[in-house]
Write a structure and sequence with these properties.
The structure is a single chain. The chain is of the alpha+beta class. The chain folds into two domains: 127 residues, Translation Initiation Factor IF3 (2-Layer Sandwich), CATH 3.30.110; 106 residues, Protein of unknown function (DUF541), domain 2 (Alpha-Beta Plaits), CATH 3.30.70.2970. Helices cover 36% and strands 40% of the residues. The protein has five helices and nine strands; from the N terminus they run H-H-E-E-H-E-E-H-E-H-E-E-E-E. A hairpin with a 5-residue loop joins strand 3 and strand 4. The two termini are 39 Å apart.
């Protein structure tokens, strides 16, 4: 199944990145099309994230601002103790944000009378233990049992070796293009010669089992395991 998904993704990548070159070849002269060949090469690698970031907030909805503030203030130590027990040391407590919710008339019109004051205290935690962050992201709602209202905003996973990996994958994609060109020219007893031009496509960083592609590129941060795919359109001279 994975191979099928992989092939489907690479097909779409090839379509996106090759369309312009295909049209250019069709519009070109016969001499240019006879001594050159354009091939799309690809390469991918599955990587595991080595750092993670969780963003959540403590929320309170009270009749007035002071009550909301006091509620969040009293709940913050509970959350900090929870994170300490989970072994989290990189904690960033952001500034709190609040707004009023107004009352409505029976016919649905908003009034100037305040119904509630909503206050949120945003907290961001980070760790190189990605599994720990993942576990907290699903377990932190247990603080509801202690009267703390938690809203998880986002959980992100990152791979620190991405820059070096991109260089390697671009090399591998170019090599793959040459191998494909050799296979295509074998029947005519020709070989790919010098590279005339290379068009590197955008990277697709997706969940491992995803077939999604985008001409703008994809940078998935929602999964621990990711598939990094590179595509290269290479024009070889035929020899």
């Amino acid at each position: 199944m994975f191979e099928r998904l992989e092939k489907l993704q690479l097909v779409w990548l090839a379509v996106i990145l090759s369309l312009g070159l295909i049209l250019a070849v069709k519009a070109g002269t016969g001499a240019m099309s006879k001594d050159k060949i354009t091939v799309t090469g690809s390469a991918y690698q599955v990587v595991k994230s080595d750092s993670a970031r969780l963003e959540f907030e403590i929320t309170a909805r009270k009749p007035n601002k002071q009550l909301a503030y006091n509620t969040v203030k009293s709940q913050l130590p509970v959350v900090m103790k929870y994170l300490e027990e989970k072994g989290i040391t990189d904690i960033d407590v952001k500034a709190s944000n609040g707004y009023n919710s107004y009352k409505y008339t029976p016919n649905g019109n908003v009034t100037n009378d305040i119904a509630y004051y909503n206050l949120s205290q945003q907290i961001v935690i980070k760790s190189n233990d990605v599994q720990k962050i993942k576990n907290i992201s699903t377990d932190i709602q247990s603080l509801l049992d202690k009267g703390v209202d938690i809203n998880v905003m986002s959980t992100e996973y990152f791979y620190s070796g991405l820059s070096d990996l991109k260089v390697k994958l671009l090399q591998d994609a170019t090599t793959d293009a040459k191998n494909r060109a050799s296979a295509m020219l074998k029947a005519t007893r020709n070989k790919p010669g010098k590279i005339q031009s290379v068009n590197m496509g955008v990277f697709q960083i997706t969940p491992v089992d995803s077939t999604n592609v985008s001409d703008m590129g994809i940078n998935d941060t929602s999964t621990i395991d990711k598939k990094v795919t590179a595509v290269a359109n290479v024009v070889f001279r035929i020899k």
